[in-house]
Design brief:
Ubiquitin-like (UB roll); about 250 residues; Rossmann fold; nine-stranded mixed β-sheet
Length: about 250
């Protein structure tokens, strides 16, 4: 037993089985964070024996960072090192709180949906600087969502998937009114009324109005009312004119 213990200790401290630098850590499946970003997040004191590394603890340390959804860490014997596999929360929209107060800065511990943030397709919210603070240079999404809160987020996955598949381009979503979901589309502002299971049918009806621009100048459209997808209403801006001056 003494010989076995001594042999194991010698093996563990052998220079052959030491992790000396982040270059010995292979990272796969990352799309937004670079290999260097993820290597820097691993609490590995260099040099460290490969045998004394705790892969599960390293994986837990990684998923403490908002952009990382899942992580697994395995020892790699030849060449000695670690293999890290991650999946990230891919942001699909910017979230803007429904507030009139000026936003000076993002607090250290922001409350979801009460500060500017990012949201993925499944409804996972992250602070807006989640990627930047890790050194990532990921581009921000172009879709903006205003007024989405924790009670409404259960509807987000289905809503986003429907919008992503819609032939009509959507640039912004206003969820700040419980009784009227408003989308900014290439056809103009669209009012959907309270969010309901009819949302997909309403989007399909919007697609049927794609030729609207051939008949009406989009700049003259106040909004499109799709609360009843079977009977869409196009509200036109009323022309105004200044009163003639007195002779």
């Amino acid at each position: 037993m003494a010989a076995l213990t001594a042999g194991t200790l010698r093996l563990a401290t052998s220079p052959i089985w030491l992790i000396r630098s982040p270059q010995q850590i292979e990272v796969t499946d990352n799309q937004l964070l670079s290999d260097e970003n993820i290597q820097a997040l691993l609490p590995v004191p260099y040099p460290q024996s490969l045998i004394t590394v705790q892969p599960d603890e390293l994986a837990i340390a990684l998923i403490q960072h908002e952009p990382i959804a899942t992580a697994s860490v395995r020892r790699r014997l030849l060449p000695p090192g670690l293999h890290v596999q991650v999946s990230e929360h891919q942001p699909v929209a910017l979230t803007v709180p429904n507030t009139s107060r000026p936003i000076q800065s993002i607090p250290d511990d922001p409350i979801p949906f009460e500060e500017p943030g990012l949201i993925d397709a499944e409804g996972h919210w992250m602070p807006r600087n989640s990627f930047a603070e890790l050194g990532a240079t990921a581009s921000l999404p172009t879709l903006t969502v205003k007024g989405l809160n924790a009670s409404q987020v259960k509807n987000w996955p289905e809503t986003y998937q429907a919008i992503a598949r819609s032939p009509v381009a959507i640039s912004a979503i206003d969820w700040s009114q419980d009784d009227n979901l408003i989308l900014q589309s290439e056809l103009g502002s669209v009012h959907f009324g309270p969010y309901s299971k009819s949302f997909k049918r309403q989007l399909a009806a919007l697609d049927q109005l794609r030729q609207l621009g051939d008949q009406v100048n989009p700049e003259k459209v106040a909004f499109i009312d799709l609360q009843d997808p079977e009977n869409p209403i196009v509200e036109i801006l009323q022309a105004t004119s200044d009163p003639l001056p007195n002779p």
